[in-house]
Design goal:
Length: 297
């Protein structure tokens, strides 16, 4: 399969949108909402494969790892979940094939710092002269729908009548927050220039991600935590293992309920078994210890 070819029939079956297999949907807001919701629910965030390849197999990442044939095997066939760039590259290909105009946004976790390397990937989607931010996989807070975005004023989007997100406009960047019980939780930011977001093409996005992977800059996603989870049919669920503390954690929130359920895994085996039960993702026992030896380009 060529790099930029997606099997839409296979993708729609994976999402459970069988009606789209019969008649290709129009690139409308309704279509975008349905696809983003199903994609967010079907593709959890997970960096288990990334750390397994990176540390245990000493696998050096290259452009081929973002080839659509590779991504479809990982996400559609193996149903493993993915890191942000993998899931959003697949989503971008599907939306573009339907007829949406989609661009990449290079983002980084808050707080803002002008010299921070950015490796989180979000999407900017144009629908009938309006713009929407799409980010299904920012850890626990991945959005199950597109967020309205007009570039110049702060905007709030409420999804499913109980999940609120806001995009805050700064002088040189946009900040995305999740809002729970009236309190904003800063998530990530992407750059702003001349009153519009800075977008990147696919090749630059891949290059920046690889550079971040092999930099000496501290990065908890790579060095400090195992992360698995995101939106679910009945709320949100998120597992993580903290290498420094040698403890694991579960955070769960049910739809419409502000109360969060928290659990602590005091050993790696219990954490591993819970992840396998909830996500059917095998976590290698060798990932238990703090990882320090990074492969070099």
């Amino acid at each position: 399969m060529e790099f930029n070819v997606i099997d839409l029939q296979r993708y729609f079956s994976f999402l459970g949108l069988e009606e789209y297999k019969l008649i290709l949907p129009e690139p409308s807001l309704d279509t975008l909402q349905k696809i983003v919701e199903r994609h967010a629910l079907k593709v959890p965030f997970q960096n288990v494969d990334f750390q397994t390849n990176y540390y245990l197999s000493k696998k050096l990442y290259s452009k081929a790892d973002w080839d659509l044939s590779t991504l479809q095997k990982l996400i559609l066939d193996r149903r493993r979940g993915a890191i942000c760039s993998e899931t959003h590259f697949l989503l971008e290909a599907a939306l573009s094939a339907i007829g949406f105009k989609v661009q990449f946004l290079s983002a980084a976790g808050m707080p803002y710092h002008p010299d921070k390397r950015r490796a989180h990937c979000s999407l900017l989607v144009e629908v009938e002269s309006s713009y929407y931010l799409v980010d299904t996989t920012y850890s626990f807070y991945g959005a199950r729908g597109p967020l309205k975005f007009d570039f110049n004023t702060q905007q709030e989007t409420v999804l499913f009548d109980y999940e609120k997100y806001e995009i805050v406009v700064g002088p040189s960047y946009y900040q995305v927050n999740a809002v729970f019980e009236g309190k904003a939780q800063p998530l990530f930011y992407f750059l702003r220039e001349n009153g519009v977001p800075v977008t990147l093409d696919r090749e630059v996005m891949i290059s920046d991600t690889i550079t971040k992977m092999y930099s000496d800059e501290p990065w908890s996603f790579r060095d400090g935590l195992i992360l698995i989870g995101g939106p679910t049919e009945d709320g949100r669920s998120y597992h993580w293992w903290n290498y420094k503390e040698q403890k694991g954690y579960l955070l769960r929130r049910s739809n419409y309920l502000s109360k969060e359920e928290r659990a602590v895994f005091k050993d790696f085996t219990a954490f591993k078994e819970s992840v396998d039960e909830v996500y059917e993702i095998k976590v290698p026992m060798r990932l238990q210890k703090m990882l320090s030896l990074r492969p070099k380009l």
